[in-house]
Design a protein that fits this description.
Blueprint: H1 4-17, H2 19-38, H3 43-61, H4 70-90, E1 98-100, E2 110-114, E3 131-132, E4 141-144, H5 149-159, H6 169-173, H7 175-178, E5 184-190, E6 193-199, H8 208-213, H9 217-230, E7 234-242, E8 245-252
Length: 254
């Protein structure tokens, strides 16, 4: 576990690595250099000064502008999650989700949602597996890609959860804060369970039943990252909401 001072330093490091942050820093530097150049009344320095200021303003205001309005991107995400929620409701699936790690049959992590929490015998899941009918004595349910898998793939090059041990994963999880996806994130072990606490930048609108079965992309990406580091199954035992904080109580391993 990182001390608070170390975590804050790591967060600042990851924030500095983000393209929009670096663009602002470089843009601000160019503007300062441009102003300094204008102080020297030569034709060359004036041209350099105006050019530097224009490029600096471009980097600050145009490169950092959102390409897609947040409301539109949020609506796309909500639409996908609504479909999954409808599917689980129509199939009467009430069990908590288990995040499955990669395996010789599975090239990417998956979520398995069982009929209930009583029979949790996970079937052999491969890349094409969706429905489990329970005929083989395994749990009845469905297997789906985590909603945050694509998001994690964008973060993975900066964190490399694949080659991280579970005990040191909290350090790498600070990448989510560096990307401004979360305000804070902690992963702690208590007895035989783990607690993943996420502080979001907004109050989570989802109900706990949805968080237990098919978490939103940000939470899902963090849970998938923990699964990737653990290289074992991750069962969501329970979730709690407290304002902007969402806590997942997890059992890792079969």
């Amino acid at each position: 576990m990182l001390p608070d001072g170390g975590r804050q330093s790591l967060n600042k490091y990851f924030q500095f690595q983000q393209p929009h942050i670096r663009a602002k820093i470089i843009g601000g530097t160019l503007i300062i250099l441009g102003i300094v150049s204008l102080l020297y009344a030569t034709s060359l320095s004036i041209k350099i000064g105006f050019t530097s200021i224009l490029i600096g303003l471009f980097m600050i205001f145009l490169i950092t502008e959102r390409s897609i309005p947040k409301k539109i991107s949020d609506a796309q995400i909500e639409g996908t999650i609504d479909v999954i929620q409808t599917l689980t409701r129509e199939l009467n699936l009430t069990g908590n989700a288990t995040f499955l790690p990669t395996s010789p049959l599975l090239t990417e992590e998956r979520i398995f949602i069982p009929l209930n929490n009583t029979n949790r015998k996970i079937p052999e899941v491969d890349d094409t597996f969706v429905f489990s009918t329970g005929i083989d004595g395994k749990s009845l349910g469905i297997s789906l890609p985590p909603s945050g898998l694509k998001l994690l793939q964008e973060i993975e090059p900066d964190a490399d959860f694949t080659h991280t041990e579970l005990e040191t994963a909290e350090e790498k999880l600070q990448t989510f804060v560096g990307f401004n996806l979360l305000k804070s994130i902690t992963l702690k072990k208590k007895d035989e369970t783990w607690k993943l606490e996420l502080e979001k930048t907004y109050i989570c609108p989802n109900d706990t039943s949805l968080c237990r079965q098919y978490p939103c992309p940000t939470c899902s990406a963090a849970l998938t990252a923990v699964t990737r580091a653990a290289k074992q199954q991750l069962l969501i035992q329970n979730t709690t909401h407290n304002g902007k904080k969402v806590t997942f109580h997890l059992k890792i391993g079969e």
